[in-house]
């Protein structure tokens, strides 16, 4: 590989990684102001129904439910209950799609960075009157996952949440590295999507 082509490859890797970070940050704009001011003042409890799964990834809705319930619990505005009969509010919805696309390629056209996007729809209902209080489509999150060591940006929020150190990257085979980074990216996206959904719901966006 010539110095020129090597510089171009590194440039594409860095640009792709930075693009992924920007996408992840821009996807979490809602969650900075989740004060709960849009929720009915008298509502104290919430039941979160199991979201349905409209993707080809088995169990991804169950995975998302863990992050969503954690997000509701962390804000302490509403108490989670195990039955709609004990709830003031009912949150229902669906994981609409998960899409993974190559974001950057090397000189011979092999993907070196993948971008994953997730999206969900949700509805909040008054459990007593059965009135729909809020509904939304397309709450989303997105981020990039490198498939090779040269594309890993060790200062990114996704990488910093992992147990890996920068010096560990070179010791991992590409397949293991790709699987590790995709799993970390999925976790990060789930967290962001749960934060975005809660913020939108609680503020009435």
Number of domains: 1
Q: What is the CATH-assigned architecture?
A: 2-Layer Sandwich
Name of the CATH superfamily: Lipoprotein like domain
Helix-strand category: alpha/beta
Low-confidence parts, pLDDT < 50 over ≥5 residues?
1-33
Helical residue percent? 25-40%
List keywords for this structure.
about 200 residues, alpha/beta, Double Stranded RNA Binding Domain, 4 helices, about 25% strand
Strands, helices and their partners?
Layout: H1 3-26, E1 45-48, E2 52-53, H2 60-75, E3 79-80, E4 89-105, E5 111-126, E6 132-146, H3 157-160, H4 174-203
Helix pairs in contact: 2-4
What is the compact description of this entry?
This protein has helices at residues 3-26, 60-75, 157-160, 174-203; strands spanning 45-48, 52-53, 79-80, 89-105, 111-126, 132-146. The chain is 36% helix and 27% strand. Strands 1, 2, 3, 4, 5 and 6 form a six-stranded mixed β-sheet that branches.
Task: Describe what you observe in this structure.
- This protein has 205 residues and is an alpha/beta fold.
- It has a single domain (3-203), classed as Lipoprotein like domain (Double Stranded RNA Binding Domain, 2-Layer Sandwich), CATH 3.30.160.150.
- 36% of the residues lie in helices and 27% in strands.
- The chain contains four helices and six strands.
- The chain has helices spanning 3-26, 60-75, 157-160, 174-203; strands spanning 45-48, 52-53, 79-80, 89-105, 111-126, 132-146.
- Strands 1, 2, 3, 4, 5 and 6 form a six-stranded mixed beta sheet that branches.
- A hairpin with a 5-residue loop joins strand 5 (111-126) and strand 6 (132-146).
- Helix 2 (60-75) packs across helix 4.
- The protein is elongated and about 60 Å long.
- The protein starts with a helix and ends with a helix.
- Mean pLDDT is 79; it is low at 1-33.
């Amino acid at each position: 590989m010539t110095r020129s082509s090597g510089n171009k490859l590194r440039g594409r890797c860095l640009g792709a990684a930075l693009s992924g970070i920007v996408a992840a940050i821009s996807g979490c704009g809602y969650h900075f102001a989740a004060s709960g001011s849009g929720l009915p003042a008298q509502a104290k409890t919430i039941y979160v129904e199991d979201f349905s799964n409209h993707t080809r990834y088995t169990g991804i809705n169950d995975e998302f439910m863990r992050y969503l319930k954690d997000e509701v619990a962390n804000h302490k505005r509403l108490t989670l209950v195990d039955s709609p009969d004990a709830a003031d509010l009912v949150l229902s919805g669906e994981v609409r799609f998960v899409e993974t696309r190559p974001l950057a390629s090397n000189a011979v056209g092999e993907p070196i960075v993948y971008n994953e996007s997730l999206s969900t729809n949700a509805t909040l209902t008054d459990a007593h009157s059965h009135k729909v209080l809020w509904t939304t489509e397309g709450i989303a999150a997105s981020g990039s996952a490198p498939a090779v060591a040269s594309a890993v940006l060790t200062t990114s929020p996704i990488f910093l949440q992992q147990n890996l150190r920068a010096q560990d990257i070179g010791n991992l085979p590409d397949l293991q590295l790709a699987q590790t980074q995709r799993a970390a990216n999925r976790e990060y996206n789930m967290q962001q999507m749960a934060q975005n959904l809660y913020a939108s719901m609680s503020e009435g966006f």
